[in-house]
Amino acid sequence: MTSPTHNTPTHNTPSDMTALRDAVATGTTTAESICAGMLAVTAERNTEINAFHEVFAEHALEAARRVDSDARAGRPLPPLAGMPIAIKDNVATTLGRTTCSSRMLENYRSPFDATAVERLAHAGAVVMGKTNMDEFAMGSSGEHCKWGPVRNPWDSTRVPGGSSAGSAAAVAGGMCAAAIGSDTGGAIRQPASFCGIVGLKPTYGRISRWGLVAFGSSLDQIGPMTRSVRDAALMLDVMSGIDERDSTTADRPPTELAKTVERPIEGLRVGIPRQYMSDANDTEVSAAVHAAADAYRALGATIVSVELPLTDVGISTYYVIAPAEASSNLARYDGIRYGHRAQLQPGEDLFTLYARSRSEGFGPEVQRRIMLGTYMLSSGYYDAYYKRALQVRRRIKQEFDQAFTACDVLLGPTAPTPAFGFGANSDPLAMYLCDVYTVNTNIAGICGVSIPAGFAERNGKHLPVGVQLQANAFEEDRLLRAARMLERALTATTGAHAPNA
Amino acid sequence: MPDNPHSKTAALTTAQVTHVAKLARLEVAPGRIEEYRTQLAAVLGHIAQLDAVDLAGVEPMAHPFESHNRLAADIPVEGLSIEAVLMNAPAVEGRFLAVPKVLAEGD
Fold this sequence. Notes:
The complex is a heterodimer of chains A (501) and B (107). Chain A contains 15 helices and eleven strands. Chain A is an alpha/beta fold. By secondary structure, chain B is mainly alpha-helical. At the A-B interface, α9, α10, α11, α12 and α13 of A face α1 and α2 of B.
């Protein structure tokens, strides 16, 4: 494993958010200078990377100055005071537009903030801008975006992963302190792996989905995308907890993981599912998992082999459940109350208004998934596809429960490959198969995190490779403490983790 | 839809794709139907692997957790203002959403 030399993702290795926050609190630096620095990097790099669709520079600087004035006056600072945070464009903000990178919502302005955004702002964070994504979060590359493809800061000829493409690229490119993404089948973790950052998909119900544009309602979760594990803990602490406006939030208090994340777990049992170590993985991907296992052994953890025989069936299960839920959720876009409305010719009827508005407003991948879901939910097919997929879903959950009797966390690849080139997966099914290691986390509703674990060299460029840890539902404390142990060990041995964490 | 509801392995026809597009309220150009048919058939072919999973006695699981309805207190809360609701409307007449005529003359 090599460390990056000639294509480091940032001009000067940025600190993680926790360090920046502490520096503001102790007066070592100002929130304004942090914010201005990230805006300068954004101004320089965003034309190429296309991480942001909108940047709220003035708003961000004003908010940062208010934090500095509070700090000078000796007022207590909230946990994320002055930290510039990027928001994926399917999360509602009253600032700017919320477009889902779709023509359908190209001018949509949300009358409210998502609960997660409200909680970040309450904790002092500065909403810096909205990030590009695969349209309506449907995609694993960041290529299917109304506002143009997002590019990987490590190698701009390659994709950043998706669908939280811009959020991952903005964090990796030093354009913001941290970001939020959404994860329906891996859309936080896979781009985190491709861009060399930390991406956490919390347990289903941990963070309110109020204000997250619905895709697959039983799968979607908002989560942090950060430069360090401790940053992910901090953001989860701020965003988690019950919300009356989302009845699927878990009735649990907000997490307090920033307090415990530095504490290693004694006697940790790490399970490696045999099915995750497939020959189809790129060599460097398997090597990163082996290096992580070695690091855990050196820390005194026990490595056990576990079985998840339904791993491969996850993609099929996901591509029934997610399109079925999407076809239902996206039925609301009809050109009547908001969103794109087609122009009708005289004599054309209401059906044409609906159908033309939707076909003009949605890109091809979104239309494909709507048709897939509609087909599988249609009369005569429901039992054969949807009901069967829900039965397999229970089996997948049971397999995880069984595996977690033998171990505390699961270790494996986040994705079978590092970042691929533009157009490399133009066949829809090939693109779907990239998510083989991440979809089952959502299907079972458990939690997972991708952390940087090494590099692969392609055409003279270093590409980050992540590994994934998964833990059972509501075990984020265990998950992030185990992740922090690994992060600390790998930073020392592979330089995989760029920041000073 | 089809006569044989469980013939999942039967090839998807262009007529089925056209019908599904109509159900989904999508206006697919005739020249693109075949492309969608090929792509959807490939995904459905892959999904057929679900048929090999032994599901005897397994109950469907629609949601990650066996949750029950959580009811909010029966107290009125402020909703969005009319202005907030209408600010994204594609066409407005006064305080109302404007839509094309639904009924033909004389209906």
